[in-house]
Amino acid sequence: MPLSENSNQLRRGRVSEPGRIYLITSVTWNRTPLFRNVRHARIASRICHSARTWRHGRCLAWVLMPDHWHGLVELGDEDLYRTVGRFKAAVSRAINREGKRRYPVWQRTFHDRALRYDDDIKAAARYLVANPLRAGLVERIGDYPYWNAIWL
What we know:
Layout: H1 3-11, E1 21-27, H2 38-49, E2 57-65, E3 68-75, H3 80-98, E4 111-114, H4 121-129, H5 131-134, E5 147-149
Helix pairs in contact: 2-3
């Protein structure tokens, strides 16, 4: 099945509900550890921090791993696919411009899970930003530079 058909099937059934909080995972192209490169990680982090990136919602917490990104995103008046797509496109443009390269940065699709209204959002954020600990990248989350949460 061609990739475009596959990505359409993945989007089928995806519901975007304004005000809903989604846990998003986006993986780099072919799981390339692109964000081991400090310059690339800093570029992606700056874009994630920018209010302009999330103008139709807001990013409550995020962590950038060597080959993927997790975000806890509260959706605004734009659908989920466009909101996440804006973030991914901005990172791709900036990294490709900086490195004078023309390679895909992200897989075309992403994984999302809507949090239930009774879910503990701060617990979800703590779980998300603890990914570097579980992956063995650091012994303390404070030692990992590529994450943030609005509760800090």
